[in-house]
Structure formats: C-alpha cells, structure tokens
C-alpha cells in the first residue's frame, strides 16, 4: 500500500471521528447548560478549551458566547479545526483514496458535505440545532457502518483503525482533562460538590459512556470511578486502554511496526498501569497531561514510520 | 401539457433522433414515445434526480479560473443519443483499422522512417512536429504499439455518416464520464432499459486492465499497475481516481515513485519500495521525466525514461506517441492506412487544407469566413477560428498567424454537425450539435468502447462541445433494432 494512501486513510478516520465527537459534544452541551446553576463554571467556551483552540478562537472573536463558539466550531472555513473544514478534509482524502475506500463512502461524504453546506444556519440557531447535529452524527455512523461491513481487512483497514483509535484516545484524554480542570476551578467545597455531579455526568455523556459506565461499574457517578472507567475500562470502545489495545492489535499486522508498537506498550504498561484512582486534583491533571503528550507523540511516530518524507 | 415534440425542428441539420418533425428515427422510436409519455412534472423530477445523482456520486471536473480551481458538477443532458448497431459496427471496425495503422506509423517514425523515405509524407512535417521526441528513437515498445489508449473524435455531417475529426493519442480523457453517464441514466430512467436493447458499456475498465497487463515486462508475475496523475488539481483527476479504482490499480503521483540504480521503477509503500511494471500515465510527455524533458517538472519521476528504455517498465501511452496527434499528420492518415495496411479507410477524414501548401493556403486565406482553422498541436478546442462565427478582426489575426507559420495550421470546411434533442430550459427539447469520442485500446488485441462519450454544445448554434467551455454530455446508446425484430418474431 502506498504510504501516501495510508496517510490519507489514517487522516480520513481521524477527521471522521473528530466530526462526530464535535457534533456530540455540542449537542450534549446544548442540554447540559440548561441544568447548570447560573454560578457554574461550565460555559460554551469549555468546548474551545477541550480542543485546545483558545488561541485560534481568540484571534477571531472577542466575545466567548454560545453563538461565537458554535460558529467557530461548526462553520468557520478559515479554521482548520471547524467541522466544515474537517468535512472538506475527509472529502479530499476520500477523493484521493477512492481505490481503497468503498464507493458508497464517497457518495455519503458528498451528501453529508452538501447537507452541511446547505443547512449550516440550522446548527447556529438553537431551535433546529439538535436535528442538524443528529444528521451529521448519523452520516458519520453510516460511513463507519459501510467501512465495517464492506471493507476488506487489509492495510487500508488497519490505517483506518489506527487513525480512529488514536483520535479517540486523544479525545477521551482531552475530555477528562477538561473535567478535572473544571473541578479545580470550583471556588469552594460546596460548589465542587454541587457542580461535581454535573461535570462528571457530562463527561460520561460527551463520550456516550453514561449507560455503559453504570452497567460496568455499578457505582454512582463519582469522579474517581468515572476517570478510572474512561482511562482503564477494557470493554468501553472509547476508553484510553481500549484504544491503545486496538492500536497495538493493528500494529501487529503492519510491516515495520516495531517502534510504534513499543511506544504503545510503553504507554500501556508504564503510564496507564500506573494510574491509581487515588490521584486527584493537580496530580491527576499532571498525569492526564503526560498521557496526552504521549498520545500526541505517538502520531509523530506513526507518521515517521509509515508516511516518511523519503528524501 | 405533454412535451412538445411536434415543434422540434432540426432545421436542415442531420438530427440523430428525429428524422422530420414528429417522426423518430427507427433506433430512437421507443425512446421518443417513452419520453412523450412522461408528464412535464415527471420529466422535471427525473431531471432533478439526475442532478442530485451527479452531486452525490461526486462526478465533477475541475475548471481553472482566475479565482482558483472550481470543482464543477458534470453537465449532463438526460435525453440519450441513439445510434443503430449496424452503423456503429462499421465505425468500430474503422477505428480499429485507424489505430492499428497509426501505431505502425509511429513505430516506423522512431525506427526506419520508411514512410518518409518512400515519399508519402514530407520530412519537414515530421521535423517540425511539436510532439516528435528524438529521445524515443530506436525504442521498441511491446507489440510495436505506442498509443495504447486513443480517444478519437467523431462527428456526423448532414449525410449522417461518421467522420474522424481528430485523433487523441496523448492522454485522452472522458471515458469515466461515459461510464458515469450510463450509471446516472440507469438510476433516472430504469424503466426504459427494460424496453430497449441497449448495448452495455461497463467492461471498459476490465479491458483497459487487460491491455495494460499485456505490456508488463514481468509476464510471469501478477503485474503491478499504477495510474500516474498530475494530482488533485488536474481537470481530469476524477477520471484518474475512477479508473485506478475500477482497475484495482494504484493511483500515484510522481512523488510516490522513484527510479533506483537498477533502472527499475518503485513506489513508496508502507512496507518500503515495491516495483511497478506498468504506468498508465496521465501526464504529458514533457513532464514525465525531469532528467530528459522539462527540467523543472515536479509532476514526473526522475529516471523514468531510463527505466522505460531499459524495458523495465511499460508506459502507456508511450512517450512520443503524440507525434501522430499533429493535425497535419491527421491530413495524411488515409495515405498512412493505405501505406501500412494496403486498405482504404473505413471512416473518412474531414476534408482538410494544409496551410503549408501554397495553393491550399491561398484557398484558406481567401475563404477564412467559411472555414474552421485549427493549430496543429493544440487540444481542448483552444486557439481555433470558427470562420462563420468570427469577426473581421479575428480573421485578420488568423491570416497573419497562418502566414507566419503555415506548417502549424490546417483548415477544414465548417461542418454541418449533426444534432440531437437536448433539454433547454425546463423541459423543451431543442436541437443541439454534438460529437462522439469513442475510446480505442490496443496492445496485443484491440478493443473499441460501445459508443463513447457524447459531448453536446449547450448553446444554440454553437459547435464547441468542450466541457471546459460550456459543453454538456449525453449517454450514448448503441441500439440493436434487429433484436427487436427477432424478439417480435417470437410473439
């Protein structure tokens, strides 16, 4: 398989995952913000911090309100992180890898692109936003469905899995980080107790993990149990441990995978295994930060291994 | 109100579907009565369905503009063009004959040049051909074939006969649109495909694959085929991706390939370098190899010509094949066929005046307002003068150009190009001029697409069918009317 095709397939999966998680995140916040006490620290701007887009956002907007955050995340063509840009990137990547991606995915990405272009205003206005975001999530899932049911499990498939699981591990760790820092910002114990419930439940919901969390842990929504579940849960497909296992499995079937595989092993055994539910506050934040840096570095390693510049 | 077919008037042109107001030609009879049976609402709905299908299928072509490249939806007219099988069979044989002779001609030019020594074609025509590549002299590609894929433009004049307008032997495009037009049509008018005996066209990618495979330098192994594209900004990128996908070949850009010291071509894969046997290249000769041609080309692969000369990789089409694309050479094709095959051409050329000949030039200059003047080595319909539609100033400019460089110009009478009903506005059929580009493959065997890509000039009276200049397209049906009779006999 051509390195360039592998790289494009990998990014297709990353962008698809990013689009879906952004859509989900916005629709969760839409519901959540109605429930929060007005004094709460959670605001729309959190969506910017979760994605580390503060600088980009502040370059474009002065007011950190709902409208600007949504406009920036969904429709800003000048930002490479916006949903329209991600969709464009998926389309360009699929367009240039049509030899390995099922044709139906190509048709669907065209349709989804058209839908978003024609209905962007629905996303910005609250009344139709839910419907709009749902359509996007459904579109992404349809594509995934086709990939799962039609794609041969060849090298292209392995790169799709690499991209998808790396993006997921990254997104889950970002969400945990945002929640932990949200807790740290609570002014006093009373406020922390009050917003704690909401913050942790929101974290689970953002990752579509609330129901499986309860089934798996049989516990109430508590900070340490939630973080533990999202970091180490073996069965939950967005937990960091699950994603790393999937990355490791994919590597096993790819050529020249030794250095990537040893990176993954290192994160699994030296970092993830070190996690203890006793960690909280700033030490937990530092821990999650280190994990995140390692995940980001893994992308560098993948890229050097399979998509080298060659010259 | 039904569609108004009675008012449809081809106005003196040969119309491919309607013989006289209200009367359909035999192969189109079922189609026209079917179209007549549709209500305007139904018709409009089908048209919308076609547009939506094109967008969803992502059938686009890229237009270069001052504001950057625009990815435009493929322009498609939902009334197909219908040709009788009998007539097509004759054209098909003529196309095979023509490409066979042209390949023998190209091979001769890069070896002994017998045709020049025998005085059939003057030497200077060759010497001054922009597409003759001395770098290719003495090379012998497999089967002596240089042009493996050819897109010949055919037109029908008011006698209803096919004529060859030009041969495209370099990197002809359009075949993917021919295939997609058929897919769109099947989605939009599924019912008519049950009623009419329309020949299928879908085997082209498989035939292309076979043609390319036959060229492999490693015949014992499964060949590795790559489609070499200039990249996503090329107007035909859609087609490059489409064909790679349909053939199960790799779609590569120059930067994905490398020629090693063993003079073999490799592609850069996730497992390291992998050897490539055949490159179906969709970039022009001059950009293929910066070691030999355009030094600044970043589209090509340094060393590619070395590998090709060493016989370690097959290039389709072979570099230098474009020499037979020259419109002056075109004028000699009847003699070329006679010389190499000792046959008369089965499809005629359009009458052509060579401007380097004093007498013919004199005639051309005196009749610029009636003729179409073309530069010898352009493609895409650029740099032409269409006499009857030209201004005095344009004619003066061309007169000057011709006198300055007579070898570089040819002229042809303005054809009375055939027409076919085309939807203009909401649902009114009006006659529009069209041409036809079949694709011919040749390696060990040869193959012609069933029909080809029909391009139509959407502007009233216009003869310019190029999609980059506002042309549209139609599905092309080769219909066996004998099969109807046979089927009728069974009843």
Helix and strand layout, with pairings?
The complex is a heterodimer of chains A (311) and B (491).
Chain A lengths: L2 H33 L10 H5 L3 H7 L5 H10 L7 H13 L7 H22 L1 H25 L4 H30 L4 H18 L3 H8 L5 H10 L7 H13 L5 H14 L9 H26 L5
Chain B lengths: L17 E3 L2 E2 L4 H9 L2 H18 L2 E6 L2 E6 L3 E8 H25 L4 H4 L5 H5 L21 E8 L5 E7 L6 H14 L1 H6 L8 H10 L11 E4 L8 H11 L2 E3 L4 E3 L5 E5 L2 E4 L2 E4 L3 H4 L15 H6 L4 E3 L10 H5 L1 H9 L6 E2 L3 E2 L3 H9 L4 E5 L9 E2 L5 H13 L4 E5 L5 E6 L3 E10 L1 E4 L3 E3 L4 E5 L13 E9 L1 H10 L1
Parallel strand pairs in B: 5-25, 7-15, 8-9, 8-13, 13-14
Antiparallel strand pairs in B: 1-2, 3-4, 6-7, 6-22, 10-11, 11-12, 16-19, 17-18, 17-19, 20-21, 21-24, 22-23, 24-25
Helix pairs in contact in B: 2-6, 3-13
- Largest sheet of chain A, if any? none
Give start-end ranges of low-pLDDT stretches of chain A.
none
Number of DSSP helices of chain B? 16
What order do the helices and strands of chain A follow?
HHHHHHHHHHHHHH
Quaternary state of this entry equals: heterodimer
The level of helicity of chain A is: over 70%
**Outline type of chain B:** globular
Secondary-structure content class of chain A: mainly alpha
Radius of gyration of chain A: 19 Å
Instruction: Enumerate the strands of the largest sheet of chain B in spatial order, edge to edge or round the barrel.
Output: 5-25-24-21-20
Average pLDDT across residues of chain A?
90
Class inferred from helices and paired strands of chain B: alpha+beta
Largest interface: A-B, 24 and 25 residues
Distance between the termini of chain B: 34 Å
Mean pLDDT of chain B: 91
The tally of strands of chain B reads: 25
So what's the overall shape of chain A?
globular
């Amino acid at each position: 398989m051509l390195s360039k095709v592998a790289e494009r397939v990998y990014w297709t999966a990353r962008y698809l995952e990013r689009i879906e998680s952004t859509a989900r995140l916005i629709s969760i916040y839409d519901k959540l913000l109605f429930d929060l006490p007005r004094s709460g620290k959670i605001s729309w701007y959190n969506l910017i911090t979760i994605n580390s887009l503060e600088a980009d956002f502040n370059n474009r907007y002065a007011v950190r309100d709902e409208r600007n955050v949504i406009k920036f995340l969904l429709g800003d063509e000048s930002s490479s992180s916006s949903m329209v840009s991600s969709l464009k990137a998926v389309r360009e990547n699929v367009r240039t890898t049509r030899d390995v991606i099922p044709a139906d995915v190509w048709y669907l990405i065209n349709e989804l692109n058209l839908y978003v272009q024609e209905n962007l205003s629905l996303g910005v206005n609250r009344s139709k936003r839910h419907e709009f975001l749902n359509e996007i999530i459904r579109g992404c899932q349809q594509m995934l469905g086709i990939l799962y049911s039609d794609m041969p499990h060849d090298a292209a498939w392995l790169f799709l899995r690499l991209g998808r699981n790396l993006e997921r591990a990254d997104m889950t760790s970002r969400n945990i980080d945002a929640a932990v820092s949200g807790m740290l910002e609570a002014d006093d114990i009373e406020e922390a107790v009050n917003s704690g419930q909401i913050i942790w439940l929101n974290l689970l919901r953002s990752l579509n993990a609330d129901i499986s969390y309860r089934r798996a842990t049989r516990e109430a929504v508590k900070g340490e149990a939630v973080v533990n579940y999202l970091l180490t849960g073996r069965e939950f497909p967005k937990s960091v441990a699950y994603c790393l296992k999937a990355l490791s499995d994919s590597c096993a079937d790819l050529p020249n995978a030794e250095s990537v595989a040893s990176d993954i092993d290192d994160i699994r055994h030296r970092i993830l295994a070190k996690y203890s539910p006793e960690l909280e506050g700033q030490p937990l934040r530092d821990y999650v930060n280190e994990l995140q840096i390692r995940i980001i570095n893994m992308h560098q390693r993948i890229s050097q291994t399979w998509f080298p510049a060659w010259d | 109100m039904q569609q108004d077919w009675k008012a449809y008037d081809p106005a003196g042109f040969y119309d491919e579907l309607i013989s006289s107001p209200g009367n359909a030609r035999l192969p189109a009879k079922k189609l026209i009565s079917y179209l007549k049976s549709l209500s305007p609402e139904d018709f409009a709905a089908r048209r919308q369905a076609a547009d939506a299908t094109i967008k969803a299928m992502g059938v686009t072509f890229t237009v270069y503009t001052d504001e950057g490249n625009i990815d435009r939806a493929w322009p498609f007219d939902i009334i197909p063009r219908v040709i009788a099988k009998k007539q097509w069979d004759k054209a098909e044989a003529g196309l095979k004959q023509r490409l066979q002779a042209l390949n023998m001609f190209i091979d001769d030019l890069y070896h002994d040049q017998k045709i020049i020594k025998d005085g059939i074609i003057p030497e200077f025509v060759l010497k001054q051909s922009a597409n003759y590549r001395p770098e290719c002299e003495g090379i012998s590609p497999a089967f002596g074939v240089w042009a493996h894929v050819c897109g010949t433009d055919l037109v029908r004049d008011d006698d209803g006969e096919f004529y060859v307008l030009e041969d495209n032997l370099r990197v002809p495009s359009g075949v993917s649109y021919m295939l997609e037009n058929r897919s769109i049509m099947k989605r939009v008018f599924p019912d008519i495909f049950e009623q009419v005996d329309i020949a299928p066209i879908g085997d082209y990618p498989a035939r292309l694959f076979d043609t390319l495979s036959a060229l492999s330098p490693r015949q014992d192994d499964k060949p590795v085929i790559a489609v070499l594209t200039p990249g996503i900004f090329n107007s035909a990128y859609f087609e490059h991706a489409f064909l790679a996908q349909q053939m199960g070949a790799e779609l590569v850009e120059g930067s994905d390939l490398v020629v090693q010291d063993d003079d073999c071509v490799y592609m850069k894969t996730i497992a390291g370098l992998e050897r490539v046997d055949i490159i179906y290249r969709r970039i022009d000769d001059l950009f293929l190899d910066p070691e030999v041609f355009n030094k600044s080309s970043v589209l090509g692969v340094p060393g590619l010509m070395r590998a090709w000369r060493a016989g370690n990789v097959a290039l389709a089409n072979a570099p230098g094949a474009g020499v037979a694309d020259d419109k002056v050479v075109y004028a000699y094709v009847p003699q070329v066929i006679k010389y190499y095959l000792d046959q008369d051409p089965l499809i005629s050329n359009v009458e052509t005046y060579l401007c380097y000949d004093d007498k013919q030039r004199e005639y051309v200059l005196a009749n610029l307002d009636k003729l179409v003047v073309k530069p010898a080595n352009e493609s895409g319909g650029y740099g032409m003068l269409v006499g009857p539609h030209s201004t005095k100033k344009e004619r003066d400019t061309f007169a000057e150009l011709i006198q300055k460089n007579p070898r570089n110009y040819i002229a042809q009478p303005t054809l009375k190009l055939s027409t076919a009903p085309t939807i203009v506005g909401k649902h009114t059929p009006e006659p529009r001029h069209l041409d036809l580009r079949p694709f011919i493959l040749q390696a060990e065997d040869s193959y012609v697409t069933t029909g080809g890509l029909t391009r139509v000039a959407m502007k009233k009276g216009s003869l310019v069918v190029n999609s980059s200049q506002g042309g549209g397209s139609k599905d092309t049906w080769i219909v066996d009317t004998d099969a109807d009779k046979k089927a009728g006999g069974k009843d």
